[in-house]
Amino acid sequence: MLLSKLKEVWICLKAGRVTLPYPFKPAPPPDGFRGKLEIDKDKCIGCAGCANVCTPRAIVVTDLNHDWRRIDFYLERCTYCGRCEEVCPENAITMTQEFETATDSKEDLHISVELYMGTCGRCGRCFTPAHPLDKLMVTGFRE
Amino acid sequence: MFKNLLHNCFKKSIWVYNTNTGACNGCDIEVINVLTPYYDAERFGIKLVGTPRHADALLVSGPVTRQVVPALKNLYDSVPDPKLVIAIGSCAMGGGIWYNSYNVLGGVDKILPVDFFIPGCPPRPEAILYGVAVALGLVKKKVAPVTLKEESPEKWLKS
Amino acid sequence: MLTGTQLISDLITNFDGQITHLEETAPGKIFITIEPETLTPLADYVMNNLGFRFVVNVGSDEVQLHGNYVISHIFSHDENKLFLCVRVHVDPANPFIDSITPLISGANWAEREARDMVGVHPKNHPDPRRLILADDWPDGVYPLRKDFPYDRKPPSQPKNRVKLKPPPEGAKVVPIGPFFPVLEEPAYFKVFVEGEKIVGCDYRGFYSHRGIEKMGDDVLTYNQICFIAERICGICGFVHSSCYCQAVEEAGGVEVPPRAQYIRTIMLELERIHSHLLWLGIAGHIIGFDTVLMQSWRIREPVMWLCEQITGNRKTYGMNLVGGVRRDIPKELHPKVHETIDKIEKETKALVNAILGDTSLHARLKNVGVLSKADALDKCVVGPVARGSGVNIDSRIDHPYAAYDKLDFKIAVHEEGCCWARTLVRLEELFEAIRIIQQALRDMPEGEIMTHEIEIPPNREAICAVEAPRGEAVHYVLTGSENRPYRWKVRAPTYPNLQAVPPIIKNEEIADVPIAIGSLDPCFSCTERMIVVNNKTDEETWNSQDLIRLSREKTEKIKKMISGKSNHV
Predict the structure, then answer these.
(1) Per the CATH hierarchy, to which homologous superfamily does domain C212-497 belong?
(2) Alpha carbon distances (Å) from C464 to A60, B7, C81, C461
């Protein structure tokens, strides 16, 4: 009985002091960590593929009028699954390493992107941005 | 920023009571993780207490389900003033995946006045420590709303 | 040895004319549809003559498909690796069905759930109270019917509060819950005591009911449900998402690449390791050994870091999609995995060596919370609770999935049925899990990790079981149109295990209740159940602080007794 108590004490002493130095030193997460979202508005083409796959339906697409489309990201509901980053055809969404996102107000976590869209001549709905040349300058030439 | 933290070093130590309003347990396990030797919140004086009457802050996780509402209100009333309510995880912030399900009210702020939110699914223990530091006023929060607007093409059209 | 074909011919011989439809959708998975009157004799025959075990009962509104409600009873034969699903059509105008709870008391909750969710009432059920829905949910509103929209919130009707059983003569009532620091989720047990001994208990729960199955049926697509399945439970989330993906893949005939199977196996075993170490810590905390809590959680932390490196998140990995996994475990990471699990093996062995000889732990856990083998079979318990009582069932052997049929491992079974036996089962499983991971890393084949072009046809059924750290988790899927299932049913392992609480705590002392319930390793959010009990005003109320204090005081008393004895010796 005493022997097992001594063994327990030995385990604690052998481990030593293991406390990580956070918050006195930064603690970056490993590569591939799924943190807060970041959107590059120049790459976004407004296809709403991200809104289609978002599991908590936190991405909402509204057509303000026939020229402007707004995409709202309500990140308070975001579950950090990373599907939006995976399906975006233009790699406009990235998941950063940011995890220090505590706040006192939910509005701090809203991202809103407004895009100028071209309109289809037949049905009048928005599609990719009006200037493909501008887009090429951002994304570069690709197959 | 971290040096300031070193100086101030969680001067005000708070006792917290953790409660789960129908969550999956992920956030609660991370809260208990914060007490374990690697993250050790107890060195800052943060202690997990077993009864709300001794608590200064309430850590709430989970989208509030219909059954839990009366019990949660009782719990809030039994915590003595002054008190802080901190909502942990995306379920407590806005209901998470089930925000509009039939049995879920969608976020703790629909029932209680929430002072701080810590997003994540589940948030890392470091993020929880950071969130408590923000709640105690030791660091400033980093996030702000982001609005990105593409330029209107009228400038090319006119030339 | 009974094969699927032999079972089919046996049933046709004995129940000729009463089976309207019969199909073997996959090897070992048989679906039959029978007339309602045949249900009780057939259930009796398969359980008592053929040796099947009752799993769960699925209530489903299939009015859009063929005009009836359907109650499907799922049975499993563990030695012969068979699943049998018995479907009964119920006329919506007369929604009644025979109850099989008098035959097997493990069906108690499943039938009440079908009544709450779809509205099919079980006749002759011994305890037909409301189970799942909130106290103020109005009568006559059944959420899983297709005409109920998933986001409607009906008005409150407070007089529907469930009345719990009154205590027997001379007994006092001790309410435990709903917010209890030891059990992380809200749960309410009403325990009847005479003096210090417990004579009965009642349980009303389901605080964590979030409407997961309704969301799966009505709102989310096949790939989105993988993520919601992961958040059914934060500790065994990967189990639920794997089980769901496997069920859909079986229903749709999707071939999963072998490398993805091995990766799923490795992540499942990593989850088992961290879950058992977590349980060890919580059990230590309940008894008063905070050293065990801190040390076992310290040992467990490297697993979380490893998972963060592989998957991108410490918990809720988000690795599974229908057709495979999203991220690979490349060769560069293999040394890190080996290093982590070898360190955990060494440190856990040292910790276990230290606590196995601790006689005060023996006195606290041996012969406490005993569940006899007969009770275990009657309540249909699963997992370490069953294996601790001598019932040898494990889904990794009985219904092989992922890469388990290619790996070599042992199952731990103990006969005593007490908390100590369950502890030993979990510790042995932990060491086996380490061996499984080492084998899987060595044998993992090269290749793809995801099948991309997937077409899931509608109206196919599938059942799949996965061994979670707490027991067997079973998912049933009926595929539908528009890229989402028609019906998805989750049966978590704690569902039958919680029904075994009354025999476990009977005749124990109040101070032993927390550890007895804790040894079941209850995961309430998996069961989506919470029970609330009201206390009458003239009862002695003991809050959670008192119960923990009692539990720890008993440990102190025992320690003093033991050291007193050793002094005399």
Answers:
(1) Cytochrome-c3 Hydrogenase, chain B (1.10.645.10)
(2) 35, 56, 12, 10
Say whether B143 and A108 touch across the interface (CB within 8 A): yes
Of C381, C397, C407, C516, nearest to C467 by C-alpha is: C397
Pairing of strands A110-116, B146-149: parallel
Q: Quick check: B20 and C185 CB within 8 A?
A: yes
What chain A holds in terms of domains, given with CATH numbers, is 29-136 (3.30.70.3270)
Q: How many CB atoms lie within 10 A of CB C551?
A: 23
Could you report the per-residue pLDDT of C502-525, keeping only the tens digit for each? 888 887 877 787 788 888 877 655
Query: Domain B2-158: which topology?
Result: Rossmann fold (3.40.50)
Give the separation between CA B36 and CA C304, rounded to whole angstroms: 13
Residue numbers in C near B48 (CB within 8 A): 181
pLDDT in tens, B128-159: 888 888 888 878 888 888 888 877 766 555 54
- Beta strands A118-119 and B47-48 are unpaired
Left if phi > 0, otherwise alpha if psi is -120 to 50, otherwise beta: which for B20? Answer: beta
Please check the confidence at residue C389 and state whether its pLDDT lies above 50: yes
> Does C492 score more than 50 pLDDT?
yes
* A28 close to C (CB below 8 A): no
Chains that touch A (3 or more CB pairs under 8 A): B, C
What are the residue boundaries of the structural domains of chain C, listed by start? 4-163, 212-497
Phi, psi of C26 (to 5 degrees): -150, 165
Q: What is the dihedral of CA B39, B45, B50, B53, to 10 degrees?
A: -150
The CATH fold assigned to C4-163 is: Beta Polymerase; domain 2 (3.30.460)
Higher-scoring residue by pLDDT: A135, C369: C369
Lowest mean pLDDT among C34-48, C432-446, C554-568: C554-568
